[in-house]
Amino acid sequence: MTNVVILGGGLTGLVAAERLALAGVTAVVIERESEPGGACRSFDMEGFTFDVTGHLLHVRREETGAYLRELGIWDRLAVHERRAAVVIGGRTTPYPVQINMGGLAPEVRRDCLLGFIRAWCRRDEGGGSAATFREWVLERFGDGLARHFFFPYNTKLFRAAPEELSLDWIGRYVPKPTLEEVVDGALGLERRGVGYNAVFRYPARGGIRMVPDAVARRVAGLKTGVAVTSVDLERRRVTMADGHAAGFELLVATISLPSLIDLLTGPLPEEVAEARRALRWVRILNVALGVEGPAPSAQHWLYFADPPVPFYRIGFPSNHGRLAPEACHTVSIEVSLDPGSGDATAVAAEAEAAAAAVGLLDREKIRVRMVNVIDPGYVVFDHRRRDAVAALRRFLGDRGVIVAGRWAEWKYSAMEDAILDGMNVARRIAGEPGA
Ligand SMILES: Cc1cc2nc3c(=O)[nH]c(=O)nc-3n(C[C@H](O)[C@H](O)[C@H](O)COP(=O)(O)OP(=O)(O)OC[C@H]3O[C@@H](n4cnc5c(N)ncnc54)[C@H](O)[C@@H]3O)c2cc1C
Predict the structure, then answer these.
(1) CA 338/CA 7 separation, integer angstroms
(2) Percentage of the chain lying above the pLDDT 70 cut
(3) Is 255 in the pocket of ligand 1 (CB under 6 A)?
(4) What pLDDT does residue 301 have?
(5) Confidence of residue 188 (pLDDT cuts 50, 70, 90)
(6) Residue 30: predicted pLDDT
(7) Which of 95, 166, 226, 245 sees the fewest Cβ atoms within 10 Å?
(8) What class does CATH assign to 281-379?
(9) What are the boundaries of each domain within the chain?
(10) Cα–Cα distance between 289 and 133 in angstroms, integer?
């Protein structure tokens, strides 16, 4: 029987182990935190429940729904129609802004609409040659939306200039409207239900950890509270912070790609070391607050493009889940940070002050606070990423290592993808056709 070790007990690693068990393969899952779930964990504090950061479930594939039913949690997930907005120049308009310019200040709306129409006309003359995110936005949306939203928002989120970003990540994440939709929106005719996250599911009670917890209950070989400290691909074994070692025939890594490379023992070929250095990412700091009184906004979340506001998004999770005691609400503020350490407490305080300044937080009423840093948070899709990831995957694949999940594959993906990635790993190892 194949001896499989899985690095990381987040959703990807858990699903892989759970599906492998069904195929008769027992895998050992090694997780450094004291509980499984990774980025999908939740914490209870004085009657409030906080997710590591806002996590909403988008189910697009029948296979995912069937899996969640099999886990017995499908009926415990409530369905919500997204209420999201964008704030530009202090004015709030529904998300996505490209089809909802009606709420913007007249001069900003004029810039955005004229820019879009000009870009639309140019496109009919034969466009489509963009090689960078900057060129793509100008080509698709025009210079007004670029200047007022896409450039400042994405620079804040990815901490990179728009010309530094490739087009590899856009896929389903940026809604691409028609001229009619844009004109309707600018005239104030709101369009609803656009974009990949128009409808989402969230536990009717408790936090998002309900999903990884339901999987973890079925995983016999889960080892928590112990970090893997080195990976020896020659001798086929991992060592752990508690001094123990585990041998493997097959290694599945769901931990981040740079951290996996850093754990490898022995010298690396220069091409691999160079590819590792090329990987770029941001950390995400999430300030989760339990606050007295009703939420100051009915939105589920709001995106902030304006550069002086340090956060890129603020959400009110208790608007979609039972996450706060009676007459209280929860707030989630997300700030993007460069890699490294840095003073999380100071950044969190600054983010709270900014949330208060835009009228979305009464600091006097804060009852509890939890600050998390997700590292890595978002992969930065710059122009070196694709080749660097290919080189690293080749190197690892040649040595019998399977990488799976958002951070191991060094991509942009969601919980549903983590579930599907985990299933695919199990199919591949169990030798199922189509894997
Ligand atoms: C800011 C943000 C918001 C998001 N919002 C959403 C959303 O609304 N909806 C959605 O569907 N998805 C969302 N996602 C994506 C979602 O979190 C991921 O797709 C999913 O959690 C990936 O799971 P994973 O198991 O691949 O990774 P992880 O959850 O990171 O699991 C990897 C595990 O490896 C462990 N580990 C790391 N190093 C070691 C080590 N040395 N030894 C042992 N264990 C180790 C970690 O502790 C972790 O538990 C969001 C992500 C971010 C960053």
Answers:
(1) 25
(2) 95
(3) yes
(4) 97
(5) confident
(6) 98
(7) 245
(8) alpha beta
(9) 4-38+204-277+383-430, 98-186, 281-379
(10) 34
